[in-house]
Design brief:
single chain, 67 residues, mainly beta, four-stranded antiparallel β-sheet, elongated
């Protein structure tokens, strides 16, 4: 915040694999996938641990902007 540089979402990809229902306990795992000079990719997996089902996979590209 002192440098006034903030991340903004530029692109999102979501692959839905299975349906989740209201009340399902879901686990979201996130990781830093790739880093470039002024942008980076984050990856996410959403699973239902009850039956080890993959619900969705997601990637987001974020860019650092100067405010």
């Amino acid at each position: 915040a002192q440098k006034q540089t903030y991340p903004v979402v530029v692109h999102t990809e979501i692959d839905y694999r299975r349906a989740a229902k209201l009340g399902d306990h879901l686990v979201v795992e996130g990781s830093l996938d790739r880093v470039e000079r002024a942008r980076f990719w984050c990856a996410f997996r959403i699973t239902r641990p009850q039956d080890d089902t993959l619900i969705a996979e997601c990637r987001q590209m974020l860019a650092l902007i100067q405010m």
